[in-house]
Write a structure and sequence with these properties.
7-stranded parallel sheet; 9 strands; TIM Barrel; 45% helix
Length: 338
Amino acid sequence: MTSNQSAMTKKERVRATLAGTSADRVPFTLWHHFPETDRTVEGLVNATVDFHQKFDVDLIKLMPTGMYSVLDYGATIELAPGDSGTTQLKTTPISSPSDWAKLTSASPSEGILAEQVEVVRQVREKVGPDVPVLQTIFSPVSMAHKLVGSALNDHLSTDEDAVHPALELFTGDVIAFGRACLDAGADGFFFATQQASRDAGLSDELYARVGSAYDIRVLQALKEDERNWCTMLHLHGTNARFELANEYPIHAVNWHDRESGPPIKDAANLTQRTLVAGIDRIGPAASGDIDGLINEVKDAIAQAGEHPIIVAPSCVLPYTVQESTLRPVRDWFQSAGA
């Protein structure tokens, strides 16, 4: 920050970065799950606000459990093994392709979705108007995968037409949920496409039909609302379809830059979208290597050059990451804006 440039609010900083205009410094954010604590509105709200207060991130990505989006359709879940802190499928209402048509709409005014709308409302009340808050939502085909796992590919192979009614249902439900979150004070969305990896087993032609066709409808409907000024596309996994960053109506793109690429310097030449990347989820942050983590931050900014970037995890950090590891990131950014 130059001597005649005043400090921006977090919202001003992020908005300037998304617009490709000058900000007082590069924005940063961090996120991980809050296992078991995230099962209640109060627990997730308190954990989110506490995390924000500790690390003073420029943008809050809400972290409901990764399976929240399918619970109102009848799925049950359990804590997943490992240190991701998320959940996995326990039981599902889908046992054959014919079951997809039996699903009924999930309303944002009832059940788990209503709880997550309330999380938005309470977090907004607690952090005030100047901190960007994004709700995490999932692509319709990712929701389908959450309900049946690897069986989705079999269903699409044997009876693709049977799956489309559910994808249509999910599309409408995600749009309605997104609008309810905007009503509650969200600034936008972290839109996760967990099946957009070419390693997920869907051909480009099939993904265009069952993935992109529905994704674009969700994203376009939510982007048309002027209250949504920050939608990040998350391309999950290895060998991701990075070209979707240009094809989708979004503001920014987040991907596994250090695990599978493209590296930030190449991504800057592949898209004009703001890049959201730089911190390896399984690298120095996970191992507690503070010097290595700060070097990742510096390297991300250097790779981006003049291209707008928000330094962030490539995907969810382990919930076991130590506060003492993340605090120096906060301190580094605060000193960078001094």
